[in-house]
Design brief:
Largest sheet: 4 strands, antiparallel
Strand order of the largest sheet: 1-2-3-4
Helix content: 40-55%
Order of helices and strands: EHHHEEEEEEHE
Structural class: alpha+beta
C-alpha cells in the first residue's frame, strides 16, 4: 500500500508524550513527586501542631493540599512545553515535508526530500493506534508516525494495517482513549 503524509510539531510531541506515559519508571517518578512533598509538609504540620503553632500547621496542610491538586496540572504543562521546545529544536527540518510511504510484504519504505529509509518488517515490534495517529513501533524503540490529519486515505490505511498486523502476527494495540495525563 502506498500513501503520503506530512508531519507537524504536534505529531512529534504527541508521540513523545505517549511513550513517556507508557514508561512505568517515569510515571512512578512523577507520582512519587506528587506525594513526597505533601507528606513532608504534613509531617511539618504535625510537628507545628505539637509545638502549639496552629496557624503555621494549617498553612502547611493547605500547602500540601494545593500541591496534591496542582502538581499534575503543572507537570503536564511543563512536560508539554519542554518537549514542544525540544521538537522545535531537533525536528525542524521534518515539518511540512511530504513523506511517501510504501508498505510491502517485506519492507516499509519511507522517502522525503532528504533521504529514503527501508525498514524490514521483522524490525516492527507492534502497531499502536492512539487518537489522531498510528505509530509503527520498531524493536529499536523508534516509531514511524502516521498522523490522521495529514495522511492520505487514513481510514483505508487503518484497515490495511489491522489486516497486515493480523497476517504478520504483529500486535495491533488500540489506545483510542489515551490522553496525556499524569
Amino acid at each position: 500500500m502506498k500513501f503520503t503524509y506530512t508531519l507537524a510539531p504536534e505529531h512529534f510531541v504527541t508521540q513523545i508524550l505517549f511513550r513517556i506515559s507508557q514508561n512505568e519508571k517515569e510515571m512512578k517518578r512523577l507520582k512519587y513527586g506528587q506525594f513526597v512533598i505533601p507528606f513532608l509538609q504534613s509531617v511539618l504540620a504535625i510537628w507545628m501542631f505539637a509545638k502549639g503553632s496552629y496557624f503555621i500547621a494549617v498553612g502547611f496542610l493547605l500547602l500540601a493540599a494545593a500541591w496534591m491538586v496542582f502538581y499534575p496540572k503543572l507537570m503536564k504543562k511543563r512536560y508539554f512545553t519542554s518537549y514542544t521546545a525540544y521538537v522545535q529544536n531537533h525536528y525542524q527540518k521534518a515539518f511540512g515535508q511530504e513523506v511517501k510511504v510504501e508498505i510491502t510484504e517485506t519492507t516499509i519504505t519511507a522517502a522525503d526530500a532528504f533521504h529514503t529509509s527501508n525498514i524490514e518488517i521483522e524490525n516492527v515490534k507492534e502497531i499502536v493506534e492512539i487518537p489522531k495517529m498510528i505509530m509503527l513501533v520498531l524493536k529499536s524503540g523508534q516509531s514511524v508516525i502516521l498522523p490522521e490529519d495529514s495522511t492520505t486515505d487514513y481510514s483505508s490505511l487503518r484497515i490495511f494495517l489491522k489486516e497486515f498486523a493480523a497476517k504478520r502476527e504483529l500486535e495491533y494495540v488500540e489506545k483510542l482513549d489515551w490522553n496525556w495525563n499524569i
